TrEMBL record:
Coiled coil: none
Name by which UniProt lists this protein: Conserved Oligomeric Golgi complex subunit 6 C-terminal domain-containing protein
One GO cellular component term noted in the UniProt record for this chain: Golgi transport complex
InterPro entries: COG6 (IPR010490), COG6_C (IPR048369)
Gene Ontology BP, a term: intra-Golgi vesicle-mediated transport
Location of the Conserved Oligomeric Golgi complex subunit 6 C-terminal domain: 39-97
Length: 97
């Protein structure tokens, strides 16, 4: 959670993507709780993960924008992290666009 809720200008690293993937998995796994008697807990966890996901995607979007602005025709070196960021943003078509 600390990695995903870092400072707005914090660099995005491999750990960010690992944490984002873990949040997505938790969000999906919580659906099992919704089928049991633990529906209240499931809804609470699902809501927390959804908020964390949205915050993370917005941070990733801002970081990606800043990285893309730094690209010029002379130096068009696209880092693996930027490629990974673009791939992750495809989950949110509005941000990817």
């Amino acid at each position: 959670m600390d990695t995903l809720r870092g400072a707005r200008d914090a660099p995005v690293t491999e750990d960010f993507f690992k944490a984002l993937s873990r949040v997505k998995n938790i969000h999906e796994d919580v659906r099992i709780l919704l089928r049991t008697n633990q529906q209240t807990a499931g809804l609470d966890i699902m809501e927390q993960m959804a908020v964390l996901q949205e915050t993370s995607y917005e941070q990733l979007y801002r970081w990606t924008q800043n990285e893309c602005r730094g690209l010029t025709q002379e130096s068009c070196d696209i880092s693996p992290v930027l490629s990974q960021a673009m791939a992750a943003l495809q989950d949110r078509p509005v941000l990817y666009k």
